[in-house]
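anyone else get weird line breaks when pasting these?? whatever heres mine. first is seq + C-alpha cells for prot A
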Amino acid sequence: MVGARSRGAAGSPENPSIALRSKWAALLALGIVYGDLGTSPLYTLQAVAHALGGPFTAQTALGVLSLIVWTLIVTVSVKYCLLVMRADNHGEGGILALMSLVGVNSLKGRGRLITAMGLMGAALIYGDGVITPSISVLSALEGVNVVTAAFKPYVMPGAAAILIGLFSVQRFGAAKIGDAFGPIMLIWFMVIAGLGLTGIVHNPSVLGALDPRHAAAFLAHSHGRGLAVLGGVFLCITGAEALYADIGPIGRGPIRLSWYGVVLPALLLSYAGQTAVWMQKASTPANPFFLLAPHWAIYPLVLLATVATVIASQAIITGVFSMTRQAMQMGWLPAVNIHQTSAKAYGQIYIPAVSGLMMIATVGITIAFRSSDRLAGAYGTAVSLTMLLTTCLLYRAMRHIWRWPLIAAAGIAGPLLVVDGGFFCANLLKIVDGGWLPLSLAMAIFFIMSTWRAGIDAVRSSLVSAAEPADRFIAQLEQGKIPRVAGTAVFLSRTAQQIPSLIIQHVRYMGALHRDVIALRIVFEDRPRIADAERSEVEPIVASIWRVTIRFGFSETPDIPAALAALKGLDPAIDIANAVYFAARDLVTPKSTASWIDRWRMPVFAYFYRNAVKVVDRFHLPAANVVELARQIEI
C-alpha cells in the first residue's frame, strides 16, 4: 500500500495516487498488491493433494485444475476486477470503506446488520494477516526438502527467524526497498510461468482443464471429497481482497492491467505445469511446485520464493496497519501510536502495538504448526467468510448506490453468493484442523470493536447529560466577570456543545480564561479524504471565543496545529503557534445501575480507554503546550 502523496494544510494527503498513476504503476502493483496471490502456487496443490488423500488420476487432475482455473476467473477476474473495484469510496477501497460507502457506520438502527458484516470482515482480515506470513515463508523454505531431507529440521526455525526479522524492521518502513518489490515480483511471475510452461510441454493434455465441464464432473463424482478439495482450491485466491483494498494508492487501471497481463497468465501456467508434472509423479510426496524445477535450480528457486513470500508478508502487514488506522478514525478501535515512516509514501506507516501483537501471533503459529501442510488447515476460513461478506455488501451497493434494478443485482450477486458460500462451507471442514484459530481471533477483534464503540457512545451521552447550561457562563463573559489573561487556549471537546464543559470547569478551578479561546471539535467523516474547502467551520460565540469544527477522512493523518494555522474566519492576531491545548483525561467507571452486560463489557472498554494514545501523539500537538485535565465519568 505504497503511494506518494503531497501534504495539504491539515497535514493530510490531497491525492492518494498521483505519483502512482504512471506507466510504472502496473509494475509497482505487482509488489504491492499481488504478493499473496502470486505466492499461492507454493502451497495450493499441496493442500489439494492432502485433501484428496491419494494420488491424482488424469480425470481427477483435470477436474482439480479446472476448479482452480475457473475460481481465478470467476472470483478475481470477474468479481473483484470488474465489480468490487467499482465500489470505491471516493477512491479508497477495503471492506471498511465499502461499509462506509453503503451508508452504515453504527451498530444501532436499521443498518446494524450491514455494519456488523463490515466489521466482521475487517476482523477476519486480522486473522488472515497473522497466518499469511507464516504459511508463505514455511512453504518457500520447504522447497529444500525436494533436494535433501537434511535441512528439514531447520525449516521451522528458519521461518520463525525470518518472520522475527521481518517484523523487527517494520519500524524503519518499507519505502526504501518498496521500489524493488515490483521488479522482484515480475521476475517471480516470469519464473513460475516459465516453469509451468515446461511442465505443460511434457503433458499438453492439461490444457483441457479450460473446459469447465471437468470441474463440474469432478464435483459430481467426488463422493464426499469435493468440499474438502474445494477448501484446498480456495487457497489459490487468498489475497484477492488486496485488489480492492489497494485501489486508493494504486488505482483500478494498473491493478487490472497487472492482473490480466501478468499475474493471471503466470498463475494459470504455474498451476497447469504443476498438475502436468504431478500426473507423471503422483506418488512423489514433495511439493509439486518445486517438482517443476530442474535439480540444480532448487536452491535459487527457494531463495527467490523466500524473497517473494517476504514481499507478500510485507504487503499483508502494511494492509493491516492501514486498516487499523481506518478503523481507529471511524471510531471502532482505540487510538494507538502511528508512525509515518516515509515523508513521500503516505501508505508507509508503522503501528508498534499492532506489529508486536502480529509478530507474537505469527511466530507462535509457525512454531505450533511447524509446516505449511498443517497450516493449510487453518488458512482460508477467515478469507472465505470475508469474501462472502464482501459480496453481501456489494449487493447493497448495487441496489442503493448504483441503483441497479433488483433482477440485475440479484442476477449477478446471486451466483457470486453461491460460489462464495460453497467455498465458505468447504473451509468450515477445516475448523477442527486449525480453522478455529483465525475465526477465534476475528471474534475477539469484533468484540473489541463493538465494545469500544458502545463505550465511546456512552461517554459522549454522559458528557452531554452532565453538561451545565452555557447561558450563565456566556452572560458572565459579556459582563466582564471572568478575568482574561494573555494568550491563546484551544480546548478539545468530544461533543458539539457551544461552550464545552471543559472550558466551564477550567474557569471554575483556575478563576480566569485566556484572552483568545477556541473550542475545538475533531470529526472523522465516513469518507477517506476531506477537501480543503470542507475541512473546517468557524463560529464566533462571544468575547473572543470561537467554536471550531475540523474534519478529517478515515485515511488521513490528523495534524491539528497545521489545520488551525490554515483556518479562515479567526482574528488574524490570534497566536496559534504558541497556543496552549487543553484536553480531558477521563477515568471511566460503570454506573451502579448498569446492566449485567455493561458491567462485564465496560471494564474492557475502560482498560483500552485508559491506555489509548494521548492526544499529543494522535493529533501532532506540541507536547510542551498540552495540558490534560483528569475527570471521572460514570457510564
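and prot B, same format (seq, then C-alpha cells)
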Amino acid sequence: MSMSTMHNAKKQSAEAKKRLQHQLYLARECPEPVFDLSSCEISEVPSGVFALCKVLQKEVLLLHTNLLTSLTGAGNFVDLAAIRILDLHANRLSSIPDDIKQMRNLQVLNLNNNNLTTLPPGLFCLVSLQTLTLQHNRLHDIPGLVAQLTCLRTLDISSNKIVSLPKQLANVRTLESLSVDVDKMKYPAHEICLIGVEAVMTFLCSEVGVEYTPPSNVLLPVLPVVPRPVYERSRSYSAHESDIAETIRQYEDLKERRRKERMLLEGQLEEDQRQQALLAAQASVNKYHLLQAVTQEHARLNQELIVAQQQKDAERGKLREALFEAERNASELIVKLLAMNEKARKTEELLELMERERMEADQYYIVRQEELDNIRKADIMKSMEKILEEDDRLNSIVRKYFDGQDETVNRTKRDFADNDGRFEQLLNTKQMTQQKLILQLFEKESLQKEAFEALLCQKDARHKRISSQILLIEQELAELTLIEMEQRQIRVETHLNILAEKRRILTDLLIQLMDERSKREKELHQRMAEMEEQRLSSMVGYWLVQYQRLLDSKPQVLVDQERHVELRVMQVLEAAGASEYVPQFALNRISIETLMQMTDSDLQRIGVGDSDLRCSILEEVERCREEDKRASIKSKLLEPSPSPETKSGSARRRLVSAPPFTNDLEPEGLSVASGGATDTVTARGVNTQCVICLDALSTMLFLTCGHVCTCVSCSSSLKECPLDRTPITQKIHLVLPSTPDHDTLEDDAF
C-alpha cells in the first residue's frame, strides 16, 4: 500500500480500516469475480487495485458508499479492460477521467449520488455499455455523443437539472428504459414523457426523420467470455506430467489447510456455546436474586404506604372531630339565642323585636353553615390533591428505583420483556387515568364524585391491602402452576401432590380475599351514596338561602308600590293563592274597582300566566262582588246611606290606621345625619338589643362586617365584631328618631 493510501487510512475509522484490509485479502484469496471495496471510507482508490483486477481477472468492481473525489492515481484504466460492472454511486466524484474509454467490456456503470456536472467524451466510446445511471447529480444536459452507445438499454438521468434530450438519442435503437424528471422536461414536452419511453423515442425519431424500431427487434452483440483463473486450461495437455502433479499437490494442500481451519472454527464454536451456557446459568441465578430483592422492596413500599394511609386517616378523624365541635358550638349558640329571645318576650312590642332578631340570627346561622360547608369542601379538595401528590411522589420513587438498576437487571428485564411491558403499560394507564380524573374534578361535579369514589377505593387501606394480597397470591399461583407443569414432565408424583395442595389453599384464600374486596367496595359505594345524600340536602338549603337573598334584594321602588296596594286587592290575591303576583298588581296600580272589571285576558296581559290562578282570582272577584251587593242591600235596609264625604273619610281613616304591607326580610334603611368624631346616621326600624349588656338598643354599625349588634357604651372598647370576630375598621352611630304619628310611619316605612 502506498504512502497516500496509508495517509488516508489514518483518517478512517477502525472498523473501516479492518474492512478494507479484509476486502483486499478476500479479493486475493477468493476465486469469485467480484472486487468489493465498498463502505471503507476511502477518499482515493488504493494504488494497485486496477492492476489486481487485471491479474485476478475480476469482472465486478464495487467502489460505492465511500468518500472518493477522483479516480486518478489508482492505476491505468487499461487494466480494467475485463471489468463488466463498475459501481461508483454514493461518492463525491465531480468528474470522470476520459481514460474510462479503455474499459471496452464495461456493461453496467452506476454513477448515482455524486457531484458530476459534465460527462467526458470517452464515456460515450463504451460501445458495450448497456446500463448507465446518473441519478442525483448536477448535470445540465446530455451530449449528442450518446448516439454512439449503440448497446444502451437503460438510461437514468432523473434528479438532475436536465430539461431537454438530444435528438441524437433516437439513434440508440436498443433503449428500453428511460428515467427523467417529467415535471421539468421541456423537450420533449412533459406530456410526452409522461406516456413512456416508447412515446419519447417515437417523437425523437420523427424529429430526425427516421422510423422508430422497438428495441425487442434489435439484437445485441455477444461479448467474449473472459477465462477464469480457477478454470484456466491454457496449458496444453501435452505438457510435462510434473506440472500436473504439482498442481494436484497444491490443491491437496489447500484442501488440507481448509479442513484444519474448519476444525479450528468448530472448536471455537463449541467453546462459544459452552461460554453462552455458563452465561445463561449465571443470568438465571442473577434473575432469582433480583426477584427476591424486588419482592422485598415491594413489601417495604407497601408497609410505608400503609403507615402513610393510617396517618391520613388519623388526620381525617381530627378534621371530622373539629367539624363536629364547630357544629355543636353552633347548636349551643342557637339554644342560647332562643333562650335570650324567650327571656326578652315581656311585652307585645318586645315580642315583635325579638322575632326579627331571631330571624336575623337564623339567617346568620344559615350563612355561617354555608361558609363552613365551603371550608369543608375546600379542605377535602386540598386533602385529595395532597394524596394525589404523594401518590405521584411514590410512583416517581419506584421509577427511579427501577431506572437505577445495573446491567444485570437490564438483561433480566429483557428476558422478561413481555411481563415488564405489561407492567409499565399498567403503570402508565394508571397515571394517565389519575391525571384525567384530576383535570375532570374541576369541570363537572358528577365527574368529581366518580373521581373521589375511585380515589377512595384506591387509597382505602383495607381495600389496598386486600388488592396487594390478591396480586401476590396470583403471582404465587402462576409460579406454582409453572413449577407443576415442569414437575409433571419429570413425573415426580410427590411434588405434584404438594404443589396441588398449595394451589388449592392459595385458590381458596384468593376467593376469600376477592369476596372481601367486593364487600369493601360495596361499603365504600354505600358511603359515597350517603355523602351524596348529605350533599343534596345541603344543596337544597343553599338554594333556599339564595332564594331568600333574592327576595331580600327586591328594589325599594317595588316595595313602596306593594305597600300602596289596597287591602281588599291583597285579600283577593291571598284567597286565590296568587300572592306571588302582588308585584304585577302594584306596578299596574290595580285598585279593587279596576279588579272588579278585569277579565281573563286582562289578567293574562298584566303577567298572570297560570290559567288556574286566573280562574281562582276571577272567582274571588265574583264572590267579593256578591258580598258587596249583599252588604249594600243590608245597609239600605238597616240605616240610611252615608254621604260621600263621610264614606271617603272613614275609608281614609281605615287606610291610615291599617299597618302597611311590608316584607319582614327587607333590610333596615339608613339616612345620613350630621357628622362628628364618629359617623352618625339616622336609622329607621332599628330595634335589636345589645348582645353584650342585653339592655340598651343596638345603635352602633360596624364595618366591614355590617352588623348592628351593640350599643354606644359597649362598643367603645371593641376592636372586633362580637358576632363573627371580624376586625372593625369603622364605627357608625345610628341615631334613633322620635316616634312619628301614623301618617309619618306610612310615608317612611321601609
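btw re prot B: The first strand starts at residue 34 and ends at 36. The CA atoms of residues 379 and 615 lie 53 Å apart.
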